Structures are given as C-alpha cells and as structure tokens.
Amino acid sequence: MAIDYSLYLVTDSTQAILGDKDLASVVEAAVEGGVTVVQYRDKKSETADLIRMGKRLRAITKKHNVPLLINDHVGVAQAVGADGVHLGQEDMDLGTAQRILGPDAIIGVTANNLSEAVVAASGGASYLGIGTVYATPTKENTKSIIGTAGVKRILDRLSTMDMAISTVAIGGLNDSNVQRVMFQSKAPSKGLDGVAVVSAIIAAQDPKAAAAGLRSSIGKVPVSMSPNAGENQNVETLLSQIPRIVKELGVKSPLCHNMTNLVVQNFAANVALCIGASPIMANYGEEAKDLAGLGGALVVNMGTVTPDGLTNYISAIRAYNEVGGPVLFDPVGAGATAVRRQSVKTLMSNGYFDLIKGNENEITTVLGESLVQQKGVDMGASTTDESAKAQLVKKLAARERNVVLMTGKTDYLSDGERTYAIKNGHDYLGNITGSGCTLGTTIAAFLAVHKGDKLLAALAGILMYEIAAEQAGEREDVKGPGTFVPAFLDQLYRIAQSASKDDSEWLRAANIEKFSV
Prior knowledge:
Elements: E1 7-10, H1 23-33, E2 37-40, H2 47-63, E3 68-71, H3 74-80, E4 84-87, H4 94-101, E5 106-111, H5 114-122, E6 127-130, H6 147-158, E7 166-170, H7 178-184, E8 194-197, H8 199-202, H9 207-218, H10 235-252, E9 255-259, H11 265-275, E10 278-281, H12 288-292, E11 297-301, H13 307-323, E12 327-330, H14 338-348, E13 355-358, H15 360-367, H16 386-400, E14 403-406, E15 411-414, E16 419-422, H17 435-449, H18 454-473, H19 481-500, E17 512-515
C-alpha cells in the first residue's frame, strides 16, 4: 500500500525526553494529532519489555491505520506483528531483513551520505531516513550532521536513479524549522516525502497538539521563502518599495544581535543606532534563546574562530532558526586557513542562513570552489568577469535556497532566481576597519522588518549603506578615511530621518541593474 511518510514519529523512552509519561499514551495522542508513521525505538530495554510495549503500540497504530515499524529488532517486529523495521548502518543488513520479513514488509534504512543512500536504494529499501540534519542535545556523533545541503545532495543523486524511493529527514527537526528544511533541501527533481521527529512530540506537554501543529506546517511548505518575490522582478518595482521599508525600520527599531569580533563592535553598534535599529553585542550563545524571541535578527561574523566561538555561534543559530528569526552569515576570511574552511562547513551544517555575505573569495569558499588561498580577510584582485560573478552568487543562492551577496567594487545580489548588480559605495569603505561587517549589521536589521521578500530587504540595506557612503565621501569636510567615518554615520542617520518624513530623494543615486544569468 502507499505509505504517507509526511509526519514520521520516532519514539524515545529515555527519562530526558519522555519523562514520567506513558509512551503508549503519548503515541496514541500523537497519532490522533496527525502522525502518519510510528517507529518504536528503544535501545536499552530487554526483548521481553520491547515486545510488551510493541504490542500496545501495534494495537494503537492498527486502530488508526498507521504503520508501526520497529527499530533494528526484526524478531520483535515479527512478534508484535509490526509492518516492518528501520535499520541503522550498524544494524542487520537490508538483504537479510528482506529475506526474514518478506516482500510486503516496510524496511527503511538510515543514510548519512551519498554512498549509503545509493546502496540502500539499490538494495530495495522502502524508504530512507536521511540525516542527521541539525545537531541535537542527545546526538553524540556530530560528524553525522549533514545539514540541509547534505540532504539536498542525497536527494539530487536519488533523482538520477532508475527507481522511486521515499525519503524522510531526521535530526533536530521541530515545528519552527520543518518548513525550512523541506523547502531548502529540495533538489530540482526530488523533495522530501516527510520529516521524522522525536522530542518535538515525545517531550511535548500536549503530544496531540504538537503533532497537529507539525502536520499543518508540513502541509504548507512554501514555494519560496520570499513570498512576494514573484511580483518584485524589475528594478523600478523594487526601488519603489525601499523608502517604505526604511521608514518601517525606524518605526519598529528591530533588535540586531551581533556576534562579531571586538575590533568592530563599537562601529557596528553605532551604525545600527544611526539606521534606527537596536543593537546588542552578545557572543555568548546561551543568551541567544532569550534574544531570539524579541523578533530581531542575528549576524554571525566569523572574524575570530575558536572552538568556544563555534559552539556559541551554533547555539545562537539554532535559537534563531527555531523561532524563524533571520540569520546573516559573514564568513570572514573563509579561505585563509584550513581551520576557517572547516569552520564554514561546521556552521553551514548546523543551521539555516537567510543571507550569506562575503567577498568573492569567501563566497567561492562557501560554495566549495575556491582554489586560491585567501590572504587574511581582504579579497585582493579579482580575475573573474561580471557574468561569472553573477553566476557564482546565483549558484550558491540556488543551492542554499537563500539570498547571497558578493561584495566588491560592484556588489552582486541573488536569491537563485533574481540576480542584480549594485554599483554604489565609495572607495573609503575599503580603507576603514569593519565596513563589510557593519554592512551585514545593516542588512540584518532590514531582514528583521521585511520578511516578504528577503532580497528586497537586503537591497534596501545595501543601498542605504552605500549611498550614505557616497554622500559622506563627497562632503567638503571629509579629507580621508579618518574624517570619513563620522561623516558616514551622519549620512546614515540623515537618510533614516528623511525616510521618516517620506523623503526619498536620496534613493535617486541608486545604481542597480538586473542580470540575466
């Protein structure tokens, strides 16, 4: 029969997750709330106890016409009359399980990489459990974390095989991120059939309500994370909306949470204040959960890389991902050292970034195509033509299903479908410390107030920032980088104030063109 894998529940009987609740009661409530498949997973109980609980769960799932699978134990599955089993990479091999259970059994297999997925699919697995997607408190083997990019690579490979196989993602999934995971991990010809959740239901105070919420979210996966992107195609339409967005930022004064290096914290705070945002410099990840609930945005600036720093970044990224708060990633110096390149991979696999901002070398490193070691945090001379740069940002944005900004003398901005070149700014920006970091602060603030079109939000921030730089550089009292910085802050403030009075004269200086790539 056709199996609905959309909301796949994996049980957890540990005290940390289940607590003192009765597992069978939790499962029944979850099934009533919309769970479509149940996997009974218990790695510690004796076989007799597994069979007793398995029979209780089988009675519940059979009543609701929901498949019951047993994790690993083929004998237990037979004893309770389950519909099949789920096998990990270290469990019984797929062929043996098929011979024991017969052709009608549902047999799923965990796949953490391309090789495992191809082998299981070729062997006739009923479905694949792909992951771990995100880190979880109980996951000890962090090397198995593949992120949505890893899921997408597996789905893309499966789409080329001459067979159809269902897939679910697992690992750190909950109501706040299931839509994003299903959206971002979708390959051109194949998407996920569902998500597998554990603590999001088992640990919930109301498992039925938790399941119903997840089922609703899964049924409403967006076509685009920028719902208004379709109506915002030409440059004139985009520009016409920017004054209103700048004004809205001043009214809402969103929190801009910066995790950045000490060198630029003061400058970033001043820039945020001048544009109308509310800055906080907080590098301790444990604070992020409270801050993420305030409706602002997070900037992760990889200026200083340490093990503790990465841990704090990951905690903050997860906190903002869980509530749907925008996260901007600035992979500073990503291509300079092996440590930084590995740090990029670690951060990319531990959460979703709404926007990735960097120079050409940093963006190519994130994409995985950089062949030249970066010297410090500076870009150096580029050998790539305009068309290739536009293609580069479009490629990364399409892969990550987000917005990508490549900064330089000309900036390139793309959401994987629309790509624009922006030719504003001033040479003095390249002669002061932190100009790229504070551009990230500015863009993040705009992402917090305008979520209908993330590319438009980013464009508003870029133009406000770079046109203010042009205005400052043209002032008679500016003689060089030293006098430029205070003048630049003044001009940011003046643009913000003029926007509050519906004055958009400053935007006439916008120099932007759409690329067809």
